[in-house]
Amino acid sequence: MEQLQKGSKKLLNAWAFYDWANSVYSLVIASAIFPLYYQSLFSAADVKTVVVFGGEIRSTPLISYTTAIAFTVVSIFIPILSGVADYVGNKKVFMKFFCYLGALSCMGMYFFNLENIHISLLLYFLALVGFWSSWVFYNSYLPDVAFPEQQDKLSAKGFSLGYLGSVILLLFNLSMVMKPEFYGLGEGGEGSMKAMQFSFVSVGVWWIIFSQYTFYHLPKGNKSKNKVTYRVLFDGFKELKGVYNSLSENKTLKRYLAAFFVYSMAVQTVMLVATYFGEQEINWGDSDKKTIGLITSILLIQLVAILGAYLTSLSSRKYGNIPTLIVINGIWASICVIAYFITSPMQFYITASLVGLVMGGIQALSRSTYSKFLPDTEDTTSYFSFYDVAEKVGIVFGMLIYGIIDHITDSMRNSILFLVVFFIIGGLLLFRVPRNS
What we know:
This protein is about 80% helix and about 0% strand. It is mostly helical. It has a two-stranded antiparallel ribbon. It is globular and about 55 Å long.
């Protein structure tokens, strides 16, 4: 197959299409169906705690800590794998491996239950590791496939495709959950639970099938005939150290990364716990209204996020990336304050709309801003590995802080309010980034 030229329309579309393929994990597993299924397991068993490794723990701190551990593993192993990928020149192989690991683990989550909680959490753990690890290699292709002037728009296009594709699958899953008898899955709550289990399978199937278009067109990586040795396994950390040392010569990139680390910590935490917050803290009335209300909110977030990603791209073009990110951080801080006080479904819908408006924008613009600040180098995987490690370590801190506050105070509202601090600090740090973008 003839390799597509950098900047070509077909190559750009192929790269962006991976968002369509893998974003169903973010929506169905991380945000929508799985959180509902997870909490329903506890409700059906009429328990608030579960015994894990000999100790009792509430449902929300348990999933927060499991998520934090998974991101810790990603942070440790991605530098090693990134170093190997850059050295051997086969980062597409790693991207494929983690894609299939995540997709197959999602399918395995069909068997998630409280009776086998350790195996169940392991499948959740592996699905998360697979998704975020493949995401590292996917992101690292951005400067390889697109020129700097194309990257803001392409990054926004990727996220928009992801939101659209995941909404399509979620609507199908929602029809199964609300009308399980139509699909021969039984009636009532038992049928809905079975439908949620099949939703996990649908994520894995969708992810594998639609990723093939991306894998077909993306280049293998930097051309190299180097072989993997014991020494190479640790070159990733040396390359990260090299990236860190290079930051002293790139003040713009260094200051941007510091700000990104802080505000991304809060953004990702909000996105990971939003459904759990809505499930526990909003007065829905009954379980059916709760299920419909939460999924409606998530759909609303996804659809508004498409608009948000493009509005942010237009704003960055007119006012610059950094000023736009500063404003978005201010909006995020306001959302966290508002969330502390909301109790009704309508208030939750309005807040969800605001989240959607800035969610797509801050993710797409953060990625493209980093890409534009990179020095002229072929080792893009190492630089994006550093970016992703910073993001994942931030998530670990964010989820741990969120879980600890929730655990101690028995209130998710206090945890959400505390995240305001990170958005404020992140915004202030962005003021220190030179305004040349």
